Amino acid sequence: MVTKDMNILEAVQQFPVIVQVFQKYGLGCVGCMVAAGETLGEGIASHGLDADALIAEMNKLIEENK
């Protein structure tokens, strides 16, 4: 499971399936230099999106792909 406080790159390394959510919303966070020092919550919110909703979507995808 991922949380808003997790580092973007660490979360993607641990749960590669969540890249689908980034792509769905047009977020280039995974390839961004800032991602190494930014949390999921910070990265998502910086694009004006609802971090809680996207985190929930990521966690649902992780569960479905176990």
What ranges have pLDDT less than 50 throughout 5 or more consecutive residues? none
Q: Tell me the number of strands.
A: 0
Number of helices: 4
Q: Give the topology string: H per helix, E per strand.
A: HHHH
Mean pLDDT: 91
Percent in strands: under 5%
Structural class: mainly alpha
In the residues, how many domains can be counted?
A: 1
Distance between the termini: 11 Å
Helix fraction by DSSP (H/I, runs of at least 4): 40-55%
Q: Write down the overall geometry.
A: globular
Over the alpha carbons, how many angstroms does the gyration radius reach? 10 Å
Largest sheet: none
InterPro entries: CHP03980_redox-disulphide (IPR023883), DUF1858 (IPR015077), ScdA-like_N_sf (IPR038062)
Pfam family, one: DUF1858
Domain DUF1858: 3-55
Protein name: Disulfide oxidoreductase
